[in-house]
Write a structure and sequence with these properties.
The chain has 13 helices and 16 strands. The chain has helices at 30-38, 52-61, 84-90, 144-147, 155-178, 203-210, 228-237, 244-274, 306-309, 336-343, 364-368, 437-448, 453-477, and strands at 5-12, 40-46, 94-99, 114-116, 150-153, 186-195, 200-201, 281-287, 310-311, 313-316, 325-332, 377-383, 396-402, 405-410, 416-419, 493-494. The chain starts with a strand and ends with a strand.
Length: 496
């Protein structure tokens, strides 16, 4: 079988439930919906970590964060660690990355042959920070991101416009390359920032959604009824009392950002369609994690509720994968890397026992045939080292989704247990129900197998000591960034 071309689109912080093909009848996402109608939609896809860098490094390597020692947004993946880009290059692909990758450290290619546009943030721990001008602080987990929300523009949208333009320009170059009789298949990785907050969107879209969007399905519980960690999290981020007006304003902007993202994806794919570059081409769409946009009074990601930890995943390969089908199996972003290598007919990493060195498994056969064997179980983890001043607490948390069950393990706090078939909104925590004691023990045993929170804490403290030196070095020497897209502060504004 001839190796296909691959277009891999990765957005940042897209809640899958805010997409037409995932059931939202308010948001306008015709391009993603069209892609879904032409391919396969995965209804139970999860992130390996509900935060950017560990999720993205897991996407590159096919490994959970604890198997690559990347848990936080300042952790550095060793450059000697093979990624799917290395594997695809070894299989003969010309690999190009346009836009967002969010990798920390000197290796800003991670196996890609070429890179365009780049990230808006520094490559280095302690490197030169960026400023969003009047929107400063709104990109992180803080109350200001809700207070300063609404109609306007952020640099993140400007960045993504440059990504779209670069992809369109590349389509002409790639089309010329593909005209050669011995042309290598192309791999294009598109990295978009949206719909990540700031919750600031185009005024026309903001106005369209403001009075149309529904309120959150789940209310913020009373403080005495809330899980103690989540209560602490709300206090830390000053989000215990968001007004209905603020809630609606931020949510409307998020809907506008999702539509903007969809339009950009449509513009990119259309430029490749016009040049005949979508024939024998696999298109994959995923996001690194979700966004809670006010469900249960929670925002951003950083939790294991479905809006945060579940991600959209769509694959379209006309003639090879069926059109308009859905898969209910439980999958993970760590499965993307082995899928790409499988499609490229490359070599998967193995050790001496011929056991894969990665945690993920190829989704290719499952995408083709919904009855293909699949282990219906996956994990996600969230660990912090206190180095981020906005998140000074240190936590070790892990989730397992096994069949209908989800157990969330909080080290030092009570666990949570949900049955997602009976309780899709996760309103009824069953962890203290004696009828489920054996199930809780079984799932917790699986969570802790090969995942020791005390050992992780020790490793993270060691990493933190090393990063402290790297941060001081970066602040003193101000190393040059490579492949960095520079923010203009006056590109950020809020309408009155």
């Amino acid at each position: 079988m001839k190796q296909p071309n691959i277009i891999y689109i990765l957005t940042d912080q897209h809640n899958p439930f805010i997409t037409g093909c995932y059931g939202d009848d308010i948001v306008r996402t015709p391009n993603l919906d069209r892609l879904a109608s032409q391919g396969v939609v995965f209804d139970n896809a999860y992130t390996p970590s509900p935060i950017c860098v560990p999720a993205r490094m897991s996407l590159l390597t096919g490994c959970y964060p604890h198997n690559q020692d990347c848990w936080t947004n300042s952790d550095i993946l060793p450059s000697g660690r093979p990624t799917f880009a290395h594997a695809l290059g070894a299989a003969g692909y010309a690999t190009r990355l346009v836009g967002r990758m969010h990798s920390i450290g000197p290796d800003q290619l991670r196996g890609f042959s070429e890179r365009f546009v780049g990230d808006h943030s520094t490559n280095w721990v302690g490197g030169t920070p960026h400023s969003l001008g009047v929107l400063t602080g709104t990109s992180g987990p803080a109350r200001v991101s809700i207070d300063k929300s609404g109609a306007g523009q952020s640099s993140y949208e400007v960045h993504d416009r440059d990504v779209v333009k670069s992809c369109q320009d590349l389509s002409t170059i790639i089309a010329a390359e593909q005209a050669a009789p011995d042309a290598a298949p192309f791999f294009l990785h598109v990295g978009l920032m949206l719909p990540h907050q700031p919750y600031v969107s185009n005024a026309e879209l903001f106005d369209y959604y403001h009075d149309r969007i529904p309120d959150p399905e789940t209310n913020s519980p009373d403080a005495e009824d809330e899980h103690p960690y989540l209560r602490d999290w709300k206090e830390l981020t000053d989000t215990t009392d968001i007004s209905p007006d603020d809630m609606r304003r931020a949510r409307a902007a998020y809907y506008g950002l999702v539509e903007t993202t969809d339009r950009m994806i449509g513009d990119i794919l259309e430029s490749y369609r016009e040049k005949g570059l979508l024939e024998n081409t696999l298109v994959i769409y995923v996001s690194d994690h979700g966004d809670q946009i006010g469900e249960r009074g929670l925002w951003w990601k950083q939790t294991f509720y479905e809006q945060s930890v579940r991600v959209p995943m769509i694959m379209s390969w006309p003639g090879k994968m069926p059109a308009g089908e859905r898969r209910s199996q439980i999958v993970n972003l760590v499965d993307i890397a082995p899928t790409l290598v499988d499609v490229a007919q490359g070599d998967q990493p193995t050790d001496d026992d011929e056991k894969p060195e990665i945690d993920g498994a190829s989704l290719l056969q499952l995408a083709i045939d919904g009855t293909a064997p699949w282990e219906n179980e996956t994990f996600s983890e969230y660990c912090t080292d206190g180095m981020n001043k906005r998140m000074p607490q240190k936590v070790q948390q892990r989730m397992i989704r096994s069949g209908p069950w989800k157990l969330v393990y909080y080290h030092g706090y009570p666990s949570q247990l949900f049955n997602l078939e009976d309780d899709p909104l996760e309103m009824h925590d069953l962890v203290a129900d004696p009828q489920h004691a054996d199930l809780v023990n079984l799932l917790q045993e699986k969570i802790l197998q090969g995942w020791d929170p005390d050992e992780i804490s020790r490793k993270m403290e060691q990493n933190r000591r090393q990063k402290t030196i790297l941060s001081e070095w970066g602040q003193q020497t101000k190393p040059s960034d490579t492949y960095r897209w520079m923010i203009e502060t006056n590109d950020n504004w809020l309408n009155s």
